[in-house]
Design brief:
Layout lengths: L4 H5 L2 H5 L7 H15 L10 H15 L2 H23 L2 H5 L3 H35 L2 H26 L8 E5 L14 H8 L5 E6 L6 E6 L2 H10 L2 E2 L2 E2 L1 E6 L27 H34 L1
Helix pairs in contact: 3-4, 3-8, 5-7
């Protein structure tokens, strides 16, 4: 595998903004900070974001591997020394140099160049090894970057959802039930779940053990709770009374949808479009069919129990 020649010219420490004696922990921390600012997902309009992110990844791979870092430091040191030697030579000194000194300098230069070539090849071999074996350090840090970006997105979404995203909606359910009624007035936990889950995900359902005919349901979304509040009446022979307990939208006044006669009432008249009205009618037709099916199932279970 060929080595990226551009990497040989990069100042990896400067790219990450750390010193030559930076610890592995400091290198990783600097990588995360830099990578977060130039990640392609956060800079979709910057065509160089992917290139810079790639260079940062290469810098992390080299500087967190002991052998590769040692080879890179040797190359860096050799280039620095060569630059210092060149800087010290001025025109006046060059003119007075004898041929012997010139030959010696050329010999030293050849030796330096050969040494630089040798250690450069060592660095190239270490980089090839890292690419062939896969850098666990790089993969781990990039995984942390992805997780942090995902967390930031989730936090932005939660802020965008406002107060509704902070408190899960809860409704209070009531129905007629005598304390000695073992059937719970026809409402077991399974029956209530079947009735309520058609509006959305039910996170929790708690039937009161102290007060007969009382329960609390927690929905995953406010929309599901509102739909249940507006449309559900429960069993025909024992209607439900449903009211807000927690998580009610501020612009939606509390109201009870079902009374003992099965009639609906609201504390505020609602105006719906023709399409909303048709959707509501279809939902109530499905509810009626589901209630009839549930009643038939309960009767069948009662008959089976009476025959056993």
């Amino acid at each position: 595998m060929a080595v990226d020649k551009d990497l040989m010219e990069l100042d990896l420490y400067g790219l990450l903004g750390v010193g030559e004696k930076a610890s592995e922990k400091e290198v990783k921390k600097a990588y995360r900070q830099k990578a977060l600012t130039c990640h392609p997902d956060k800079n979709p309009d910057n065509p160089r974001a992917a290139e810079v992110f790639h260079q940062l990844s290469q810098a992390l791979a080299v500087l967190t591997d002991a052998a590769a870092r040692a080879a890179y430091d040797k190359v860096r040191k050799a280039k620095k020394q060569a630059a210092e030697r060149t800087q010290k030579l001025d025109e006046k000194r060059k003119k007075v140099k004898l041929d012997l000194e010139a030959r010696e300098r050329e010999a030293q230069t050849r030796d330096s160049e050969e040494e630089e070539i040798r250690i450069t090849r060592t660095l190239e071999q270490e980089i090839i090894r890292l690419r062939e074996e896969g850098s666990r350090q790089l993969e781990e840090q990039q995984r942390l970057i992805r997780e942090q970006i995902q967390l930031e997105r989730q936090q932005r979404n939660q802020v965008g959802n406002g107060a509704e995203g902070q408190i899960t909606p809860k409704l209070k359910l009531k129905w007629k039930c005598r304390k000695e009624d073992e059937t719970g007035g026809g409402y077991s936990k399974e029956v209530l779940l079947r009735i309520l889950q058609k509006y959305g995900d039910v996170m929790n359902l708690l039937i009161s053990s102290r007060k007969a005919g009382s329960a609390v349901v927690e929905f995953a979304t406010v929309k599901a709770a509102e739909m249940a509040l507006k449309n559900e009446v429960g069993l025909t022979d024992n209607p439900l009374k449903i009211s807000w307990l927690e998580g009610q939208p501020r612009n939606n006044p509390s109201h009870v949808l079902s009374d003992s006669g099965g009639q609906h009432r609201t504390s505020q008249a609602s105006v719906v479009s023709e399409r909303d009205y048709e959707s509501l009618v279809m939902m109530r037709m499905r509810q009626a069919a589901e209630r009839q099916k549930l009643i038939a199932q309960l009767k069948q279970e009662d008959e089976e129990e009476s025959h056993t």
